[in-house]
Every structure is written in structure tokens, then in C-alpha cells.
Amino acid sequence: MSTQSISNKKVLLTGISGWIAKHTAIELLNSGFEVLGTIRNKDLISQTKETIRKYAPIEKLSFVELDLLKDDGWNKAALGCKYIMHIASPFPFKVSNNRESLLPVAVDGTLRVLKSGLSANVEQFIITSSIVAMFRKPNRTNPYSFGENDWTDENWIKGVSDYFLSKTKAERIAWEFMESKGLKNKMTTINPGGVFGDALDKKGSTSIEYVRQFLKGKFPAAPKWGVLISDVTDVAKSHVACIGNKKVGGRRLIVGKEVKKLIELSQIMSEALPEYAKKLPKKELPNFMVKLISYLDSSAKTMIPDLEIVMQPQSSYAEELLDMKFKSAQGAITDAARSVVRLGLV
């Protein structure tokens, strides 16, 4: 796509101060798009701009202060935008006892963004979802294979915590809403696994926090838990590769190639940063220990339903539709670990 043909193409990018969104903004700006980033707190604008400036030209970058919980300003922001990338979504490190705590931002926020886009005649919506909206259900086989037609069971109270519920409900409601308007093909969701890669700046993210805790020696042993690893640059490029791509309309795209267990992530970090090898876990933690720890540290709760389950996501169709080859897990983990050290986060 020549830069000339996209000179009048403007993208509304929600939650631009977030980690995946910054990477996506960099990808868009380097591809010649104009980006209007929404931000909840205007105090984050200068830091976000500083980070993006290091990796992309920022003449076509602007910001608008908007809140996903309020209607104010969304319709106006969407005017003149050809595409909307809705990336903003809460992903806390800790798990709340209230499963519904994230729903107002995730669900109402998504509908707010879609409605404002339709009122402004936006051509295409690209929504960041997650494989967490696909793979959690009781009585799974092991190994457990899943694809774009699979959904997490929202009613599985024990296995579906606040974040899982928020991503599943937000994505389901988005599809239902677009379908009710007969516009399902105007939307695509990007469904990565655990996203790793360069932290860019000190603001971090939940996955960067895991890497930081590993390197600090917080995990004497690793839970027997594995996840699809998605490289953050692949996730950003996938969003951009959807623009104007007729093949991806109405599709849920699983981004990522390799499933790795936490102990394997530890080994990759040890190889990349031998000076931290002593602090990284060398063995796996018995499942009952993870359950005990979860009473003290709610972030461990997220893993319990998947302990020792081998996931097998089907993602080759997404590579074909996007005309991409997804990167290996090793590069994503190495980039994450090196950036955590470079930024002085350990």
C-alpha cells in the first residue's frame, strides 16, 4: 500500500498510553497513517508521545482525552476517522473477588466505541480481544485444542475470573451488536495469547510485570502452566494488516505461534541474560503449592484452572489471512527480558 493512497486515512486508536497500543501506534505512523489516540488521563500524553517519538515520526499523531465510562466526546473524536482500533481494556495484575468489576469499562466501553464509529460512518473496526475469550471451559480434554469458533464459558464461575469474563463478554457483545446492524464484516478481532516483547518505557504491562518478577527472583519455582506466546510487534502488525483487508471481515484472528510453559520462559531468559540465571526458577512448582500461594497472592489464581493442561491453539489460518509469519516465542521473551533490564526495572 503506497503512503500516498493512505494520506487521508485516519485511525482512532483507543487507550494509546497502553503497551500494545503504543506498539500499534508506532506501526501505524511508520506506515503513513494519521493517528488520533484516546487517553483517559491527559497527564500521560507527554510520556506517551516521548516513547512513540523514539520509534516513529509523530507529525501525524494527536491525542484526545476520553473516558470509556462516559459518552462525552466519543462521537466527535470518531468524525473523520476511517478506521477504529479499540485496544483499551483493563488487565490488572491482581484478581478481584468481584468477577464483574471490569465489565463497565470493558463491555460498555466497547459498545460506546462501536456506536460512535457507526455514527461517524467509520469503514472498519479492529478490536483487541484475547485467547482468554476462547479457551476457558470446564471438562476440557488434555491436550486442549481450540480455534476461532470457540468461546470461554462465562458461566463457569470457578474457572472464569474478572479479566477472563471481561474479555469474553466484551467480545461477544461487540459481535452481537455488529451482527444486529448487519455489519459483522466491518469488524475483526485480534486474539493474542500472552503478549511479550520490548517494554518500550517504564509504564509496563501485566506481562512485563511477570518478566520483572521472574528476573527479581520472586518465583523460586514455576507453576506448571503454559500459554500461547504472542510477540507484541506481531500483535501490532496484525492490527495494521487488517486495514482494507477484505479477507478478515467478521473473523477472530489468533495471533501467536508457540505455546510455552513458564519453566521454558525461565530457560529462555537464562540464556538471554546469564547474569540473572541464579534468580530464575529451575524447577516446577507442585499444583497444590500454586493453590496455597493463590490465597496470599491473587495473581496466581489466574493459572489454577489451566495447571498441567497443554493448550493447542489453531492459528495458521490467521497467518494466511494476514499474509504474515508469526515470530517465535524466544524472540518475544528475550526482547521483554532485555528491555526490563535496559529500563532499570530490576
Provide structural commentary:
The protein is α/β, with parallel strands linked by helices. It has one domain: 3-Layer(aba) Sandwich (Rossmann fold), CATH 3.40.50. Helices cover 36% and strands 17% of the residues. It has 11 helices and 14 strands. It has helices at 19-30, 45-53, 74-78, 103-119, 162-180, 206-215, 232-242, 262-272, 287-296, 316-322, 329-342; strands at residues 10-14, 34-39, 61-65, 83-86, 124-128, 144-146, 187-192, 194-196, 222-223, 226-231, 252-255, 258-261, 284-285, 311-313. The protein has a 7-stranded parallel beta sheet with strand order 3-2-1-4-5-7-11, sandwiched between helices. α2 links the parallel β2 (34-39) and β3. α6 crosses α11. The longest helix is centred in the middle third of the chain and has 19 residues, at 162-180. The model is unreliable at 1-7 (pLDDT under 50).
What does the overall shape look like? globular
Any idea what the CATH architecture is?
A: 3-Layer(aba) Sandwich
User: What distance separates the N and C termini?
Assistant: 41 Å
Counted by DSSP, the helix tally is 11
Described by strand count, sense and barrel closure, the largest sheet is: 7 strands, parallel
What is the average per-residue confidence, as pLDDT, rounded to a whole number? 93
Rg, alpha carbons? 19 Å
Secondary-structure class: alpha/beta
Order of helices and strands: EHEHEHEHEEHEEHEEHEEHEHEHH
Briefly, what CATH class? Alpha Beta
Report the CATH superfamily: NAD(P)-binding Rossmann-like Domain
According to CATH, the fold-level topology is Rossmann fold
**Approximate strand percentage:** 15-25%
Catalogue the unreliable spans.
Answer: 1-7
- Characterize the quaternary organization of these chains: single chain
